[in-house]
Design a protein that fits this description.
The complex is a heterodimer of chains A (315) and B (303). With 315 residues, chain A is mostly helical. Chain A has 13 helices and no strands. Helices cover 77% and strands 0% of the residues of chain A. By secondary structure, chain B is mainly alpha-helical. Chain B has a domain at 92-301: Orthogonal Bundle (MetI-like fold). Chain B has eleven helices and no strands. In chain B, α7 (160-186) crosses α9 (202-238) and α8 (190-197) crosses α9 (202-238). The longest helix of chain B is centred in the middle third of the chain and has 37 residues, at 89-125. The chains are: A mainly alpha (315), B mainly alpha (303).
């Protein structure tokens, strides 16, 4: 177990490093990372010509004259040694680290609330659907999941705003801080993963109910309730747990769009704003943070696996 | 599957033709017994024809603005109304189908081709090649959802091909992973071994034996991925990334129309419904194929 954990943590660090190299090199190698672009986006106007003095100044400030690998080492050692993600190109006096620390909590609040919705709706509805296979309730749930997977989340978000904010005036459109602000974005974000989790729980539950030990339990004369809750559910939920880790990643990615609709001050909004203003340090750092969160959650899920299913032995 | 394939008498003759004929009959029978799937095929056929002919058959130029007629509701002239610049929503929605389908087909095609070849090579050669490719797949899968495409697209700028490139880079890894697993499962089966013993070059073994026999789950994934890519495209263009101005696209129509959510909700409702219908059709197709080809459910999951 300790060996397994050490190995997993090693791979985690390596993957994060590799992802940061990929993000850094890719984003710095494409046109847009040049001193000229930075100067246009920050010091002078987009259409203005950039003087040589400004160019030199920008180049020096961001070490742009160094070869790419050296820039990467400087950036990485700043993160590892001092938690310094570099300076933003756009917000001139703000280090990226403080932008990130302001943005990470809102994103986690949003993603975790959505995850709670996914679990609270997805698992019971999936179990219901499996127990009552082919009943009208099951058919309604199955149709609803197939249809809701097809709708883009940004569209659902706008429809929720149209109905609950603009027409009924129950909930605020944008803003951050109160639970009421959280309802619409979390719902819109949770829709896809909920539908997928319902389907996975249903399939897994039906598989489990077809197993021999269930038949044996029925033969023993146990009540249906007893069989479902004590024998089937726990085993049926094991494959679901791994997928929850993956869907947490999708929630993180989904926040990028949802946060922009609801002006939610999280990583997703920071990332998209950074993309539009060509603020490469912000973009690279946001990506590294999102990848790290995603990998950490997946590691946690894998470890949780052991708790739920003692049959699994780590090697 | 494998047992049938080993029964072929002539190894050098290439693909498992006898097996394929039999399975073709079974597939045709399966399709015959599924009216819903047939309907889906017909509708997809109609969709593709309409999308291909869209610029010719639409009643208005999709980019022709007419400010006096902006944000109008449905009328005999404009059956789905007009957008915030007075452009005909029906014409724009139809033309946008072409944009979405071109991007989705190109992306899935590239990701499918790259993933299949890379995954197959990794599994067949094993060793250090496999190790390198697997780590590379893990690396790309560590970027959740559209994050990678988003960052890349923001910097390389708008363009249909840029969009395809950015999306392909985020999609190929799932194809490669699936293909690698499939090939690993069959690479030591007797018919592959005997092909190797018979002296067939690696390229022929990969092209004639491994790829045809491991491709089915990957094909199902590709079909399901079309819907996924259409959603990703619309999400990116909703944010204002990837689609150059002047090309109608559903996501950017919603993105531009969201300022008029209260006054002209049709600007948003129409393209959103169009996305949903098309994605639904491709998902039904993919899931139908999954059942018909009897691919195990765990292997292919919609992301």
């Amino acid at each position: 177990m300790h060996y397994y954990l050490a190995k997993r943590l090693g791979f985690l660090v390596l993957t994060i490093l590799a992802a940061s190299v990929l993000a850094f090199v890719l984003l710095h190698a494409v046109p847009g990372g040049s001193a000229e672009t930075i100067a246009r986006h920050t010091l002078v106007g987009l259409e203005d010509s950039v003087s040589d003095e400004v160019l030199t100044q920008v180049s020096q400030q961001y070490n742009l004259a160094d070869p790419l690998w050296k820039q990467y080492i400087t950036w990485l050692s700043g993160i590892v040694m001092r938690g310094d993600f570099g300076a933003s190109f756009v917000y001139l006096d703000t280090p990226v680290a403080s932008l990130l620390s302001l943005a990470i909590i809102p994103t986690l609040v949003l993603a975790c609330t959505s995850m709670l919705i996914v679990i609270a709706l997805g698992i019971p509805l999936g179990i219901y659907s499996a127990i009552h296979e082919n009943s009208p309730g099951d058919l309604v749930i199955r149709c609803a999941t197939v249809v809701s997977i097809a709708f883009p989340s940004f569209w659902v978000a706008l429809m929720l705003i149209l109905v609950f904010s603009l027409t009924l005036d129950w909930l605020p459109v944008t803003g951050y801080g109160t639970p009421a602000n959280l309802v619409l974005p979390a719902t819109a974000l949770a829709l896809h993963p909920t539908a997928v989790v319902i389907r996975i729980v249903r399939t897994s539950m039906l598989d489990t109910l077809g197993q021999q030990y269930i038949t044996f339990a029925i033969a023993k004369g146990l009540s249906f309730k007893n069989i479902v809750w004590n024998h089937a559910v726990r085993n049926a939920l094991i494959p679901v747990v791994t997928l929850l880790g993956v869907y947490f990643g999708h929630l993180l990615a989904g926040t990028v769009i949802i946060e922009n609709i609801f002006a939610w001050p999280g990583i997703g909004k920071l990332l998209v704003d950074g993309v539009f203003s060509h603020d490469i340090p912000v973009v690279t750092s946001c990506i590294v943070v999102i990848v790290t969160l995603f990998l950490l959650v997946n590691l946690g899920v894998d470890l949780l696996y052991h708790v739920i299913d003692p049959r699994i032995r780590y090697e | 599957m494998s047992e049938d394939a080993t029964a072929i008498p002539h190894i050098r003759g290439g693909t498992a033709s006898g097996y394929q004929d039999r399975s073709k009959n079974r597939i045709i029978q399966e399709i015959r017994s599924r009216p819903g799937f047939q309907l889906c095929l017909v509708l997809l056929g109609v969709l593709i024809v309409v999308a291909a002919l869209a610029p010719v058959i639409v009643p208005y130029n999709p980019n022709e603005t007419s400010l006096p007629h902006k944000n109008e509701g449905p009328s005999p002239e404009h059956i789905w109304g007009t957008d915030y610049l007075g452009r005909d929503l029906f014409s724009r929605t139809l033309c946008a189908a072409q944009t979405s389908l071109i991007i989705a087909f190109l992306t899935v095609g590239c990701a499918f081709a790259a993933g299949t070849v890379i995954g197959c090579i990794a599994a067949y050669y094993g060793g250090i090649v496999d190790e390198l490719v697997s780590r590379c797949i893990d690396l790309f899968l560590a970027f959740p959802g559209i994050i990678f495409s988003l960052a890349l697209l923001g910097l390389i700028g708008a363009g249909i091909l840029n969009m395809v490139l950015a999306l392909t880079l985020s999609q190929w890894a799932s194809f490669a992973r699936l293909m690698r697993g499939d090939v690993l499962a069959i690479r030591n089966l007797e018919y592959v071994q005997s092909a190797r013993t018979a002296g067939l070059p690696d390229r022929q073994i990969i092209l004639r034996h491994l790829i045809p026999n491991a491709i089915m789950p990957v094909l199902v994934l590709a079909t399901l991925d079309v819907g996924h890519v259409i959603l990703a495209t619309s999400g990116l263009s909703f944010l204002g990334l990837g689609i150059p101005p002047g090309i109608p696209e559903w996501g950017s129509m919603v993105g531009a129309g969201k300022e008029f959510l209260r006054t002209a909700p049709l600007n948003i409702i129409v393209p959103g419904l169009a996305i949903a219908v098309v994605v639904l059709l491709f998902n039904v197709l993919g899931e139908g194929l999954r059942d018909i080809l009897d691919v195990h459910k765990d292997q292919v999951n919609i992301a």
